[in-house]
Amino acid sequence: xxxxxxxxxxxxxxxxxxxxxxxxxxxxxEALVGENLWRVLRQAVRRQAWKEDDRLLIEDSKVVYSPxxxxxxxxxxVIAALSAxxxxxxxxxxxxxxxxCPSHHPQVRRExxxxxxxxxxxxxxxxxxxxxxxxxxxxxxxxxxxxxxVRSVVVCPSRFNELVDHWGxxxxxxGEGLRELLCHCREACTPAExxxxxxDKHGGRNNYAAMLxxxxxxxxxxxxxxxxxxxxxxxxxxxxxxxxTIQPRADGExxxxxxxxxxxxxVREVLMLEFNRFWQTQVPGLKATAGxxxxxxxxxxxxxxxxxxxxxxxxxxxxxx
Length: 321
Fold this sequence. Notes:
Blueprint: E1 3-10, E2 19-27, H1 37-40, E3 45-46, E4 56-57, H2 61-64, H3 72-82, H4 93-100, H5 105-109, H6 126-143, E5 146-155, H7 157-167, H8 171-188, E6 195-200, H9 209-215, E7 220-226, E8 231-236, E9 242-247, H10 255-282, H11 293-309
Parallel strand pairs: 1-6, 3-4, 6-9
Antiparallel strand pairs: 1-2, 2-5, 7-8, 8-9
């Protein structure tokens, strides 16, 4: 059975808080390769935010979540969908990170604002999550869609700035996260089965062969196509077909990329709740921030005296790019 793997991030643009990048993967019958999984799993999922019914909303995280919409729909979709292969309901936020990004959790634990004590779900209705999870599992079983991999990378400001300083490029942060996720998926996927990676593209870069080669050191990355609309690659030397497609708005075309987008956004929002809670205890009356440029300067100027008082380095709070 071939593997379908989606990779996307949340938090690349902000000056505050972590960047989160996630890969999710399922195995599907040969007949479903190239099929629209929204259509295949339509009894359990929907992609129209305006169409309210009992199915899970799985879409680009920017559609599912906004400050106005709140966290409920995003949290319901992530926990219910991931329940097909990971039990998340009832965990603390620390348990969430242990499940999704065990190699990065120690880095997050070093953040002064992190406690990891929030219980999941934070606001979503547990009964709705259970119903959605059950419906999703039934639909996946009916169509032989097997979910088996979910892994996240979390990059906090100190590490983010280190990578930018070392490589002289903000894009290098995404490249490092992508390399790690590709390596994990390659090792976790069943040998001798085809792997189809779909990756959301950011910025104007079209050439990824050198970056991808680092993730597949024992193989040869062959360029099939490199254009603004998409870049295609084929990896030789591993005994199985490995194909990679990097394209803009992949989260709007591929179910697995949309789910990866949602998981990344959910992990970031869980962490940003803790980030804001910490700084609001240090600066009474402080208004919470999402960390994006339009509001991050205001927030940082208000917490700057507390940053100095606590003896913290600016680079541990503020991303330089």
